[in-house]
Amino acid sequence: MMDKNSKIYVAGHRGMVGSAIVRELERQGYTNIITRTHAELDLCRQADVEAFFAEEKPEYVFLAAAKVGGIEANANALADFMYHNMTLEMNVIHAAWENGCKKLEFLGSSCIYPRMAPQPMPESCLLTSELEKTNEAYALAKISGLKYCEFLNRQYGTDYISVMPTNLYGPNDNYHPTHSHVLPALIRRFHEAKESGAESVTCWGDGSPLREFLFVDDLANLCVFLMNNYSGNETVNAGSGKELTIKELTELVADVVGYKGKIEWDTSKPNGTPRKLLDVSKAEKLGWTYKTELKDGIKISYEDFLNNPMRAER
Questions:
Q1: In the predicted model, what is the mean pLDDT of residues 221-232?
Q2: Total tally of structural domains belonging to the chain
Q3: Which residue from 177, 173, 149 is spatially nearest to 161, judged by alpha carbons?
Q4: Do 142 and 275 touch, CB atoms closer than 8 A?
Q5: Residue 184 covered by a domain
Q6: Neighbour tally for 41: CB within 10 Å
Q7: pLDDT tens-digit profile of 123-133?
């Protein structure tokens, strides 16, 4: 269990998840948090990662660094997503093991589960059938990281764990028009439509897919909770246990943003996975549940978008 002076490395601290973990650690009184920007440490360069771990010797590692994107970005850059994610996670996990890290927590994604997994998806359904093709490369990379942690535990007796979040949103999200996930993309599109006075906004697909969302600060709270309270080879799902259709989500975002125009659907565009609800009973049995309701979280995210001009423009 971490004490308040434990040396903790948060990889990916400028991203949405990593920055939330740093906020949560600071909120709970942890004082010895190590971070490095991408310019200071490229996690895809094995020698640099090994040198960093040999010098700093962190006791605990939160591996939240990743190359991420939405349906379009994933589908158009399969090789890039696979290479960057597999390389950085293998480098960090291996260097942590080589340098005697007490515990590592690997952050994955619910896209690791099969396209037609049972709903809600239990942790045990991993690798039981084929993956969703649009994000197969990213999923395979994340499965590899999860399995490497498991295999180190089995072979060397390490205490490396993994957590698989559902769709995340919140402060420090990426609002890029083509490289963002669905919720931040909708915030940007409805805001711009409101500003320009557009009569309608066209969204991808038919609005029927069901999605679950978790506020990133709730995930960070779970991550710290698991670091202190969970050990095991099987991953832990992180979600709200609630779902809504993409159509309902767009209406909710439009309401929060204050867009009054029409919402239309381009059914020539892909829907993605039809349903992605996580079974969160394992986290609940451990003693954790989410706190932030979706509408409240979207309001905080919209404020973040409005007050983060550089992030909104990128």
A1: 98
A2: 1
A3: 149
A4: no
A5: no
A6: 15
A7: 999 999 999 88
Rg of the chain over CA atoms, in angstroms?
19
Separation CA 259–CA 255 (nearest Å): 6
pTM strictly above 0.90: yes
**Using CA atoms, how far apart are residues 121 and 242, in angstroms rounded to an integer?**
12
**pLDDT attached to residue 74:** 56
Assess if residue 235 is contained within a domain: yes
Across 50-76, average pLDDT: 85
The percent of residues above 90 in pLDDT, for the chain, comes to 82
Q: State the maximum Cα–Cα separation within the chain, in Å, rounded to a whole number.
A: 61
What's 159's domain CATH number? 3.40.50.720
Question: What SS3 state is found at 192?
Answer: helix
Residue 196 in domain? no
> Which residues, listed in sequence order, are joined to residue 229 by a DSSP beta bridge?
none
> Where does residue 12 fall: left (phi above 0), alpha (psi -120 to 50 degrees), or beta otherwise?
left
CA–centroid distance for 312 within its chain: 19
Domain residues for 229? Answer: 8-172+213-240+276-292
Residue 269, token pair as written in the block:
């565009």
Residue whose pair of structure tokens reads 């079974």 in the numeric block: 279
Stretch 243-257: mean pLDDT, rounded? 97
| Pair 163, 105: CB distance under 8 Å | yes
83 assigned to active site: no
Catalytic residue among 9, 30, 138, 175: 138
| pLDDT of 71 over the 90 cut | no
The alpha carbon of 271 is separated from its chain's Cα centroid by a whole number of angstroms, namely 20
First to last CA, the chain: 39
Both structure tokens of 34: 């190590």
Give Cβ neighbours of residue 109 (< 8 Å, ≥ 6 apart).
138, 139, 142, 164, 165
Residue 300 lies in a domain: no
d(C-alpha 85, C-alpha 65), whole Å: 8
Closest CA to 288 of 211, 216, 236, 243: 236
* Helix-, strand-, coil-residue percentages of the chain, each rounded to 5: 45, 15, 40
